[in-house]
Structures are given as structure tokens and as C-alpha cells.
């Protein structure tokens, strides 16, 4: 959270290594050689105009999208591929699924399971994927609900919750898998302005607890105050990358300056 | 037209909000078309009712006599059994085929496509006759080239493949092809974000399908499935062609016995109408059940609608009286 984390950062182990990643949708190039390192405990914010490739980059990190070229590693393990004898082998579905267990993701549109209550949403993966007993999963889920300030909403269905409450349940659902890395894909973009604060508060609390986070966001205040580093993306490349306060307060690149002038 | 004094201050505004303003008085739009069409419709209903009563050929006393005849009642059971078994095969097979069709495995996707292509592409009556004749051939030719069929006939002997079994298989396997399209549409109606969220939690394809996608697809799958059940109840009458003694066949036999055609057709029609009505009501409530979670307010049941309409009528009448009162 604090800026002085950055000088320490190099000493921390590498959590995510993104190395010259390219990705096209059909003929449309979305990522054109993106490289980036995220260290343990770091909160890395991705900012930039829509269509700049931020969300796609994030989705590549847990293999929801396959990269065309380049490598992504999470905790020193290649995402989606095995590397053996100088050759890449596509991972089997089951191994991809295993890899995703440790990478939590929060979506712009929440994507809660509408046929389940908040509590059922949270215990679903721990019970079905990790094989935890229901009693243990429920007890843990209640702790997570309390952390996001929604202990009283355990029995509510998603349609009975506000957008901000749904997103906090979604965060609790991701945390229930005890991930080592959390990805946030514009978590507050679909929310009414008055509900944004609650979600950001939960994310700030999570950042302070030392969680490694990659956050695609349009909330410049959050990026500046909670983010350790900020990467500004435009046209499928990282234009500027550095200390969060520095990039937002004194952007060096003309395109970053133009973007920040508009969103302020 | 009493309180029109402008108010300052929040308390006054609240007080004003609590008092209902005078109801709007307006001449209602005239809709002569509705009256004319209602009169014409009533005329037709009256003519039809008159025909039902006056035409002696209906033989209502015979209908009453034979409606609960034990042969008819037994045949109804056969019709219901045919419907239930065929729909069970249809629904289970349909889900299986839909999942296969949407799978990333090209072999199972092609197999499911071929199945649907074949069973939707030939008349169910032909399939029925086909199955009936396969039963006769079983002794000599095991493993006849119909998908999913062979295993059945390895196990069963010639004698156990009755006309009833043939009918259940024919109707059920044909239904599976239609159900697979219904289930497929349901699966595709579920937002992709649901699968992505489940995948990001480390769930695998089978789990995502059974725990996340299919339960949500039910809302889209149930209404047309209810339709299919109702349709199957009537389509099961085709089994009479291969000698299954179900409702239509029993009526037909009775006609040959008593030389009275119309009363028995009326008996059969009344029973079909009765069961389709029961099924329609059932379908309505099942739909309502699966709408939970997707809508905050469930639509009212017909009974609630009646109550509400009555209430609305009374409110309107009261308003009208109030207006008259005020004008006096």
C-alpha cells in the first residue's frame, strides 16, 4: 500500500512473469509484446483506455485466453504449458484447472452463480474442487463473508443483493480458494458510484494483508493510493510502467499524460 | 377537488404525498371491435354447443356409459406408461446428446449431430414400424445398425421385445433427438461468464456443466419440455398402429365391437383433453418454480389473477362512485 514498498520490491520473489506476450483476436492484434514482472505482495494496477488490452492480458494470466506468443509464468510455473526437453506441451484440462485454483479472479460483471445463495456460491469450489467437508467450508465461508462485511447476507440470492454486495461476495468466493494471486478485472466498473467505495475498501484491506494483486481499473485514486506499481497500456503495449504515485502524479509519456488528463 | 394549497417545508410535502389526489376523470377509449368480435365468438360457441346437444350421433349416453369402462381405463394406463417411459428416455438421451454436441471432442459432437440428423429426419411412424420389425428380426440379426440400439438387443430375447417395448424405444429415441435441441438451446442461453467464473475457481468441464450451467439452463429447458410431454401423450397414439392397446387402440377396438364410432372417439378425446389440461397446469407451476432467482417478483397464479382482477374492478367502481359523489 505504501510507496516505500517499491524499494523493497526487488527483494521479493517474482510472483508473475509476463514475457513478450502477443495475442490477436482474428486479425485484430490485442497484445503486441507485453512484458511485466509482478512480485510477491505487490499490487500492480493496469490502467489505460478501453481496447488497450488490459483485460485480455489479465485473462491470459489464468489461461482464460491463450497467448499466441511469449510466456507467462505464475510462481515459476508456466501457465497452460509444460516445458520439457526444450519443447512446450499443452496442459491437460485437469492441470489447467489445478493451476487456476491458486489464482483468484474477480470479474467486472461479478458472475455470481444466480441459482445459489451467497454462502453456496462461496463453498461451491472448496467443496467441489478441493474436496473440503461442507461443515469446514461453511465455517470458512462465514469468515470470508465477515471480512467483506456481509455476514448477514449468507442466505441471500445474488438478485437480492446490490451490485456492490454481489462484487464483495465474488471477492469472498475467490478468497475461499486461498489463492496466492488475485486478478481483478475492472471490479467497480459496473457499479453505481455510491457502491464503489465498499468494494474498494475490501480490496484495500486485502492489499494491506499482503495479497499479490493485479488490478485492471479506472479508479485512479485507488491505483495511486493502494497500488504499488501502475502500468499504462495503450494499443496492446505497456507505454509506461513504474511506481504508482509517480506514474499518476508525474506521467513521463505524452500518451499517459493525455489519458490521465481525461480521466481526472 | 379539495386540497390544492401549495406547501412549503418537507413535513407538508410528506403530508401531501400521503393524501391520494383525485382520480383522473376521462372518457375511456371506445373499442367497438372487441364487442363485435366477442358477439361473433359467442355466436359460434352457442352454435357449437347447440350442435353438441342436438346432434344425436354424439351418443352422449353411450359416452357416459363407456367413459370409465375398464378396458378404457386399462388403456389409459398404457398411454400414460408409454408417455412417461418415452419421455424419460427422451430427456436423459437429450441431455446426453446436447452435452456431446457442445463438447470440444469432435468425435462425440459428430456422433450427436448424426443421431439428431437421423432421428429428426425420418417420420416417427416409420421409426415405430422399423422398431417393431427389428423386434421380429432379433433372433437372427444381432447388432442391427442403429445408433444406441444394438446393446439393447444383445441382452433381450425375441420374446421380451413386445410391441410396447418397441413403441417405448421408438418414441423415446425419436424424442431424444428433439430434446437434445431443446437442452442445447438452454445450455447456450447461459451467460459465458458463468463458465469462466467456475473455471477460474478451478472447476473442470464436467463439474461446470452439471453444477453451474445445467441448473441455470433449466429455466429455458422446462417450458418446451412441458410442451413435449403434452405432445408425447398424444403422439403415443401412434403405437396403436403396431398393436399396443393404448387409449386410441382400445377405442378403435371397441368401435369394431359395438359399431358405434363417434361415442368412442369422444371418449378418447375427453381423456386426452383431461390429461393435457392436467399437464398444462403442472407445467405452469414448474415454470413458476424455475423462475425463482431470475425474477424478484413471481408472476401471479391464475387464481391470484382472478382475485386481483376482482379487486381492481371493485376499486374502479369505488372510484367512479367517489367521482359521482364529488360532482353532486
UniProtKB/TrEMBL annotation, chain A:
<dbReference type="InterPro" id="IPR003593">
    <property type="entry name" value="AAA+_ATPase"/>
</dbReference>
<protein>
    <submittedName>
        <fullName>Amino acid ABC transporter ATP-binding protein</fullName>
    </submittedName>
</protein>
<keyword id="KW-0029">Amino-acid transport</keyword>
<keyword id="KW-0472">Membrane</keyword>
<dbReference type="InterPro" id="IPR017871">
    <property type="entry name" value="ABC_transporter-like_CS"/>
</dbReference>
<comment type="similarity">
    <text>Belongs to the ABC transporter superfamily.</text>
</comment>
<dbReference type="GO" id="GO:0005524">
    <property type="term" value="F:ATP binding"/>
</dbReference>
<dbReference type="InterPro" id="IPR030679">
    <property type="entry name" value="ABC_ATPase_HisP-typ"/>
</dbReference>
<keyword id="KW-1003">Cell membrane</keyword>
<keyword id="KW-0547">Nucleotide-binding</keyword>
<keyword id="KW-0813">Transport</keyword>
<dbReference type="InterPro" id="IPR027417">
    <property type="entry name" value="P-loop_NTPase"/>
</dbReference>
<dbReference type="InterPro" id="IPR003439">
    <property type="entry name" value="ABC_transporter-like_ATP-bd"/>
</dbReference>
<keyword id="KW-0067">ATP-binding</keyword>
<dbReference type="Pfam" id="PF00005">
    <property type="entry name" value="ABC_tran"/>
</dbReference>
<dbReference type="InterPro" id="IPR050086">
    <property type="entry name" value="MetN_ABC_transporter-like"/>
</dbReference>
<feature type="domain" description="ABC transporter">
    <location>
        <begin position="16"/>
        <end position="260"/>
    </location>
</feature>
Amino acid at each position: 500500500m505504501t510507496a516505500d514498498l517499491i524499494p523493497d520490491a526487488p527483494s521479493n520473489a517474482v510472483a508473475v512473469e509476463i514475457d513478450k506476450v502477443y495475442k490477436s483476436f482474428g486479425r485484430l492484434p490485442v497484445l503486441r509484446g507485453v512484458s511485466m514482472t509482478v512480485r510477491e505482495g505487490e499490487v500492480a494496477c493496469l490502467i489505460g483506455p478501453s481496447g488497450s488490452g488490459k483485460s485480455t492480458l489479465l485473462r491470459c494470466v489464468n489461461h482464460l485466453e491463450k497467448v499466441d506468443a511469449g510466456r507467462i509464468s505464475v510462481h515459476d510455473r508456466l501457465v497452460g504449458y509444460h516445458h520439457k526437453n526444450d519443447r512446450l506441451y499443452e496442459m491437460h484440462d485437469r492441470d489447467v484447472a489445478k493451476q487456476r485454483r491458486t489464482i483468484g479472479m474477480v470479474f467486472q460483471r461479478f458472475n455470481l452463480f444466480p441459482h445459489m445463495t451467497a454462502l453456496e456460491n462461496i463453498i461451491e469450489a472448496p467443496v467441489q474442487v478441493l474436496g473440503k467437508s461442507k461443515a469446514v467450508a461453511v465455517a470458512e465461508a462465514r469468515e470470508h463473508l465477515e471480512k467483506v462485511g456481509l455476514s448477514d447476507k449468507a442466505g441471500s440470492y445474488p438478485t437480492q443483493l446490490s451490485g456492490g454486495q454481489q462484487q464483495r461476495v465474488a471477492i469472498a468466493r475467490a478468497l475461499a480458494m486461498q489463492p496466492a494471486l488475485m486478478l481483478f478485472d475492472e471490479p467497480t466498473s459496473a457499479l453505481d458510484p455510491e457502491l464503489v467505495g465498499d468494494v474498494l475498501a475490501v480490496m484495500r484491506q486485502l492489499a494491506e494483508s499482503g495479497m499479490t494483486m493485479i488490478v485492471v481499473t479506472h479508479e485512479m485514486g485507488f491505483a495511486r493510493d493502494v497500488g504499488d506499481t501502475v502500468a499504462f497500456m495503450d494499443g496492446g503495449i505497456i507505454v509506461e510502467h513504474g511506481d504508482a504515485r509517480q506514474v499518476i502524479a508525474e506521467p513521463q509519456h505524452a500518451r499517459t499524460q493525455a489519458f490521465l488528463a481525461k480521466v481526472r | 377537488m379539495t386540497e390544492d394549497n401549495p406547501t412549503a417545508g418537507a413535513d407538508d410535502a410528506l403530508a401531501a404525498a400521503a393524501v391520494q389526489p383525485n382520480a383522473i376523470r376521462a372518457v375511456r377509449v371506445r373499442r367497438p371491435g372487441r364487442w363485435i368480435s366477442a358477439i361473433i365468438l359467442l355466436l359460434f360457441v352457442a352454435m357449437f354447443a347447440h350442435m353438441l346437444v342436438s346432434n344425436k350421433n354424439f351418443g352422449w349416453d353411450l359416452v357416459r356409459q363407456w367413459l370409465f369402462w375398464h378396458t378404457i381405463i386399462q388403456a389409459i394406463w398404457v398411454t400414460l406408461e408409454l408417455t412417461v417411459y418415452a419421455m424419460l428416455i427422451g430427456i436423459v438421451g437429450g441431455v446426453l446428446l446436447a452435452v456431446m454436441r457442445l463438447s470440444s471432442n469432435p468425435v462425440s459432437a459428430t456422433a450427436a449431430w448424426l443421431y439428431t440428423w437421423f432421428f429428426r429426419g425420418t417420420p416417427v411412424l416409420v421409426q415405430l414400424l422399423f422398431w417393431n420389425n427389428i423386434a421380429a428380426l432379433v433372433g437372427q440379426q444381432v447388432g442391427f445398425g442403429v445408433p444406441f440400439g444394438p446393446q439393447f438387443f444383445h441382452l433381450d430375447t425375441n420374446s421380451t421385445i413386445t410391441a410396447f417395448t418397441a413403441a417405448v424405444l421408438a418414441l423415446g429415441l425419436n424424442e431424444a433427438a428433439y430434446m437434445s435441441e431443446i437442452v442445447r438451446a438452454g445450455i447456450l442461453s447461459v451467460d459465458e461468464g458463468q463458465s469462466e467464473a467456475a473455471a477460474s475457481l478451478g472447476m473442470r468441464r464436467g463439474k461446470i456443466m452439471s453444477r453451474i450451467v445445467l441448473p441455470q439452463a433449466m429455466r429455458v429447458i422446462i417450458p418446451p419440455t412441458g410442451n413435449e410431454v403434452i405432445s408425447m401423450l398424444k403422439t403415443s397414439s401412434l403405437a396403436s398402429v403396431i398393436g399396443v392397446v393404448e387409449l386410441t387402440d382400445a377405442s378403435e377396438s371397441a368401435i369394431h365391437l359395438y359399431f358405434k364410432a363417434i361415442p368412442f372417439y369422444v371418449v378418447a378425446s375427453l381423456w386426452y383433453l383431461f390429461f393435457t389440461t392436467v399437464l398444462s397446469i403442472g407445467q405452469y407451476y414448474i415454470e413458476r418454480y424455475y423462475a425463482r432467482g431470475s425474477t424478484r417478483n413471481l408472476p401471479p397464479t391464475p387464481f391470484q389473477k382472478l382475485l386481483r382482477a376482482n379487486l381492481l374492478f371493485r376499486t374502479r367502481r369505488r372510484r367512479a362512485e367517489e367521482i359521482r359523489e364529488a360532482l353532486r
